[in-house]
Amino acid sequence: MTKLDSVLTRIDNQLPQSLDRLFELLRIKSISTDPAFKKHCRQAAQWLADDLTTIGFDASVRDTQGHPMVVAHHQGPENSPHFLFYGHYDVQPVDPLNLWNQPPFEPVIKELEGGQKQIHARGSSDDKGQLMTFVEACRCWKQETGTLPCSLTILFEGEEESGSPSLLPFFEANGEELTCDLAMVCDTGMWDIKTPAISASLRGMVTEDFVIKAANRDLHSGHYGGAATNPVHILTKILAGLHDESGRVTLEGFYDDVEELPEEQRRQWEGLGFDAGKFLSEIGLSMPAGEANRSVLEKIWSRPTAEVNGIQGGYCGDGFKTVIAAQASAKVSFRLVSNMDPEKIHESFVKYLESHLPEDCSVEFLNYGGAAAIQLDHTLPQIKKAAEALEEEWGNPAAIVAMGGSVPIVGEFKRLLGMDSLMVGFGLDDDAIHSPNEKYELSSFHKGTRSWARILDALAE
Amino acid sequence: MTKLDSVLTRIDNQLPQSLDRLFELLRIKSISTDPAFKKHCRQAAQWLADDLTTIGFDASVRDTQGHPMVVAHHQGPENSPHFLFYGHYDVQPVDPLNLWNQPPFEPVIKELEGGQKQIHARGSSDDKGQLMTFVEACRCWKQETGTLPCSLTILFEGEEESGSPSLLPFFEANGEELTCDLAMVCDTGMWDIKTPAISASLRGMVTEDFVIKAANRDLHSGHYGGAATNPVHILTKILAGLHDESGRVTLEGFYDDVEELPEEQRRQWEGLGFDAGKFLSEIGLSMPAGEANRSVLEKIWSRPTAEVNGIQGGYCGDGFKTVIAAQASAKVSFRLVSNMDPEKIHESFVKYLESHLPEDCSVEFLNYGGAAAIQLDHTLPQIKKAAEALEEEWGNPAAIVAMGGSVPIVGEFKRLLGMDSLMVGFGLDDDAIHSPNEKYELSSFHKGTRSWARILDALAE
């Protein structure tokens, strides 16, 4: 029996205790975007530092201007490689709460017909369940062998769901401590429930948050309706004009730096056997939206987008209020691909918006955020080794995929610390992350833990 | 000294006590549209019934399916006319609370430079301040003369700001008790701070409240953006399409029953000396919105409108949530003029909306409400007498005006009880009703009370 075999057996035997620990973490309401949950975020950070300490890491909670970081170090055998593992302990808000089948911070395991088991809770998939697969793999390595197969630094962030404002200053202050041979990022998904995946490209993102203002106060729509500028009307016209009839984004220069998919990559993606109809029907839709004459996979992996993520103006409560609001606001995000420059897209959006404002309206831009798209080097030897380890665990070759979402930290690892990232995670498309009833497959948690044990073994060689 | 003179002197002398009573009523948080304030609505009704009883009315709180009515009767001299006075004790919600300069339910009197005094509180103008001008006029008549100059029935409603769902059933059950020679409705305004007004026409209204639904859950905009239908996009396109480039409403048949303003009326309105620039600059605007080539007075008095009163979709809290919402909702109101049929406009809106929905979206219509426009008979002798009484009090002739707002009860008085309505009130355009920092001029309250004393005297003859 190899060391790895005994570690894997230990992972199997300790699954109940691993779940107990995960549930403890899931019960902490670490919603980073809402200031009301500040102390819960710190509580989650402290819980993780304490847990890593029990494994033998030199772990600490590190203050930032926002929510704290957790940093932990463990020395491996001499001359072994040194990896940085990254995850985040913060979670998305839970509204609308009434759509949850059970309280979001009271984790449960649900068994479906046929025996499939799922962990239900906010953060089960994004990202507490994912990061604990790595922690549990480390625990079993340590318990079984007395050490780890390689040197590890672990970084857990608490602001991933709220734009990571403290990340760059933290990197700048602690770059040397965090720089390793390779980063491992677990905030990604599998191809399907039986097929692991390594993500080789990510879309970037620009987020815009703005308010359009008209009259100096809310107005009675009877007294002023028909003569006073209604900022909701202005906002709806502006947002409706963001896409043309063919679904393309109308911002000036939006597609200037977008490259067409290379023929080789298109063929590889076609080989994945993606079922667009199933993808849409699982979310209750039958027709793809967006750009005409593009496949669904292209749309979500290699095409840029504009999406309104939030809009609000006037009276939205029960009943009716005949008001012309003084202001209306929206949150809009753009997904970026290829070489699109976040700053350029932001400027183009500001220009578009300002040029569509009537004389009596003003616009106030609030938090703007941006991150470029990421394209990894396919030829990295670590990617090949990780792919082999994943295939051993799952019995299916790992799919090399793109991701429609953004993991801005991967760009910062490269830019600030000079590190490439291995993106491996065990989430599934139907995990409902960012939505009510978020879940994580029990198989993702269990075999995910086993996968990390194998990857650490493979990459240590 | 006539009876009227001594009543007017008493009104002057008792102003401090009148204000004390008004403040008591203003402190009651009778927000009818929000179920959380149900008991406050009943409290306001009881307060009014108790106060009317002290004057000598036979007053009672009458249950309905919603908030209660207050009905009070007082017999006048034999063969005197019998009037029904209508007001409402419910008020608008107070959000956004942070824009109020003081708590909305803690009334204060503010003195401006130059000595002008204002009563500040939610409901000070709409409608508690207005209805108390009538109650105080009755009190002083009764105290001074031992009776009232005519027979009076008073009806105070508690659902005017939430669509008056109980009004029609109440009229149907109590029609005989409520039918008088003429109704008096105080929910209207003055021409300016020195010029009283009688309202001769009112716009009608249709209110629409609906939700557009797309995916079966909220989606992550990274995983689905560019391929999944975003209901906020659909909603903004639909709302942006409600007006064409010239500001006209695009619903089919919308203008079919709209009459052009008669030349005579246009001339009378021009004689009022309305200052459109001042009207707009007071609310921080410089350019009229809405239909091209119409005067501002036409736009707010005699032209139909479509206004979005509320819109909501996706995440609107602090921070950012990269979500594609499962649904988006809006509240839209149409102001009606001439012979526009609320039912027809509703049907046209439903048709417009359904014809613009993509295949994967559905729409759910919630509460729909409708009331036709009102045009009063100018030649009623009571209108002439009231105008003379108002001129005596204010020293300026009463302006005969239209109202952009809707007072649906005036239509129901005519339709169900066969009564015309005398619409006299002392609100001002800048009272900020339905907005933060609602106020009522102290002169409106004081001289308004005196005006009602004069009108009752004039109409009793």
Structure description:
2 copies of one chain form a homodimer. Chain A is of the alpha+beta class. Chain A folds into 2 domains: 3-202 and 375-460, Aminopeptidase; 206-258 and 304-371, Alpha-Beta Plaits, CATH 3.30.70. Chain A contains 14 helices and 19 strands. Chain A has helices at residues 3-13, 15-26, 38-55, 128-145, 167-178, 221-224, 231-240, 263-270, 276-281, 296-301, 342-355, 381-394, 408-417, 442-460, and strands spanning 58-62, 69-74, 82-88, 108-111, 117-120, 151-157, 182-185, 197-202, 204-213, 219-220, 305-314, 323-324, 327-336, 362-365, 369-371, 374-375, 399-403, 421-424, 439-441. In chain A, a hairpin with a 5-residue loop joins strand 4 (108-111) and strand 5. In chain A, helix 1 crosses helix 4 (128-145), helix 2 crosses helix 4 and helix 4 (128-145) packs across helix 14 (442-460). In chain A, 56% of the residues are buried. The interface between A and B is large, with 99 and 100 residues. Strand 11 (305-314) of chain A pairs antiparallel with strand 11 (305-314) of chain B, so a sheet runs across the interface.
Question: Summary?
Answer:
With 461 residues, chain A is α+β, with helices and mostly antiparallel strands. Helices cover 35% and strands 21% of the residues of chain A.
> What does the oligomeric state look like here?
homodimer
Number of strands of chain A: 19
Q: Rg of chain A to the nearest angstrom?
A: 23 Å
CATH architecture of the largest domain in chain A: 3-Layer(aba) Sandwich
Distance between the termini of chain A: 18 Å
- How many DSSP H or I helices of chain A? 14
